[in-house]
Amino acid sequence: MSAVKMFNNSSLNLLSFVLTGIPGMEEKNALMAFPLFVLCVFTLLGNSLILFVIKTDPSLHEPMYIFLSILACSDLGLSMSTFPTMLRVYWFDSKEITFRACITQMFFIHAFQWLESGILVAMAFDRVVAIREPLRYRTLFPNIAVAKIGIAAAVRCICVCFPTPFLIKRLRFCSSSILSHSYCLHPDIMKLACVDIKVNILYGLIIIIFTLGFDVVIILVSYIMILKTVLGIASHRERLKALNTCVSHICAILIFYVPMISVSLLHRYGKHFSPLVHMLMANIYIMAPPFLNPIVYSMKTQQIRQRIYNIFLRKQTRI
């Protein structure tokens, strides 16, 4: 009886977790460190440049660009939440992370992801108003409305993610402390628990259905309305012009949702795949949106592209 009691007292909770680099090839972690560092630098520079361009150019202080700046802030937050531990694992082979640091990272990763999803919905609504009511766009979508939508998206992501650290803290962990990735996620942590995790699973399912699912439905409905409006335009040139304003946003949607859905399907139905495949997909899921969004908006949005070009042109002229 005393032995059982001693076991329960000594193994109820872990003080730290162990992060994972390249599964089964830990000696090759250093090979991925430098590309990861370069990716990190370009991600931070790209999103910072987008923010700088929008902030310094008054002509870009419009709803679409304000939402884009919030999206860039979300990407920066996600990058700063994940890259330090990833670089530490791959570069210095330092895999241990304390329990508190892990659940804090988990909270911020999920919060910034839900924020990004909410902003993508807001940007879809912005495109609907801009295309269906171009003459009344500024009246129907003033900056104060944009600010309220941004605050609502931030409050929503905090409320959605607030229970997750407490749901993890109530769990008891026994022997295994090795996570599947080089960062902490709620599904990954809860799988290590040696007690019933039905509450965690149920909460995660409810959140996905009523936030992510709801967001996807709103975006689909928004683009159905946009297509109906565009098809009603007589001029072929005007149709292309209207659709062209949505290209960047459509790319951002695909960049965000496709990896997320792919990782979810892989976790559910791809258990027979190599751990290396799971690691690569998980890293793409985290790193792709912050890295690719600035590239997409720089290339596909003429106003952003022209401002960036002007910045570099001035620097070359000074030299």
From TrEMBL:
Any single GO BP term: cellular response to lipid
Transmembrane domains' residue ranges: 34-54, 66-87, 107-125, 146-168, 201-226, 247-270, 276-297
Keyword presence, Ribosomal protein: no
InterPro entries membership: GPCR_Rhodpsn (IPR000276), GPCR_Rhodpsn_7TM (IPR017452), Olfact_rcpt (IPR000725), OR51/52/56-like (IPR050402)
Domain G-protein coupled receptors family 1 profile, residue spans: 46-297
Membrane topology per record: Multi-pass membrane protein
Location(s) in or outside the cell: Membrane
Keyword terms of this UniProt record: G-protein coupled receptor, Membrane, Olfaction, Receptor, Sensory transduction, Transducer, Transmembrane, Transmembrane helix
Main location as per UniProt: membrane
Transmembrane listed as a keyword: yes
GO MF annotation list: G protein-coupled receptor activity; olfactory receptor activity
Any single Gene Ontology cellular-component annotation: plasma membrane
PANTHER family found in the cross-reference section: OLFACTORY RECEPTOR 51H1 (PTHR26450:SF53), OLFACTORY RECEPTOR 56B1-RELATED (PTHR26450)
Protein name from the UniProt record: Olfactory receptor 51H1-like
Source organism (scientific name): Python bivittatus (Burmese python)
Species lineage: Eukaryota, Metazoa, Chordata, Craniata, Vertebrata
Gene from which this protein is expressed: LOC103063556
